[in-house]
Specification:
The protein is mainly α. It folds into 2 domains: about 1-65; about 70-110. About 75% of the residues lie in helices and about 5% in strands. The protein has 3 helices and 2 strands, in the order αββαα. It has a two-stranded antiparallel ribbon. Strand 1 and strand 2 form a beta hairpin. It is found in: Cytoplasm.
């Protein structure tokens, strides 16, 4: 792949020596030749990337579509029962903790 010689900042900051009738024509031409090489390099990169994009799109279009496996209903029901049992256990534990923490406070307040 071709290498890029100038950045936008390099081009912007380029100064030419002033000769008898203006800028040195050879220096300007050399600079413009280098810029043209950069543009050729950019075009090569763009062409390469467009080719890769086209190749990947074609590959994605030709790839077999795999459907997600469908779980049978009995497996779904078992999972729901297990999670609801787990939720029930969590709620029961929370209830015990609340009774332990807040129950003692309620009993103390009623004696006062």
């Amino acid at each position: 792949m071709a290498s890029i010689k100038f950045t936008t900042k390099d081009i912007f900051e380029q100064d030419f020596k002033i000769g008898f009738r203006g800028y040195d024509q050879d220096e300007v031409n050399d600079f413009l030749d280098d810029i043209m090489k950069d543009y050729d390099a950019y075009e090569a990169i763009i062409k390469e990337l467009k080719g890769e994009i086209a190749r990947l799109k074609a590959q994605a279009a030709n790839a077999p579509r795999t459907a997600a496996p469908v779980a049978d209903e009995s497996e779904v029901l078992r999972t729901e029962r297990a999670s609801s049992a787990t939720n029930f256990d969590i709620l029961r534990r929370l209830n015990r903790l609340e009774k332990e923490v807040f129950g003692k406070q309620i009993i103390q307040e009623s004696y006062e």
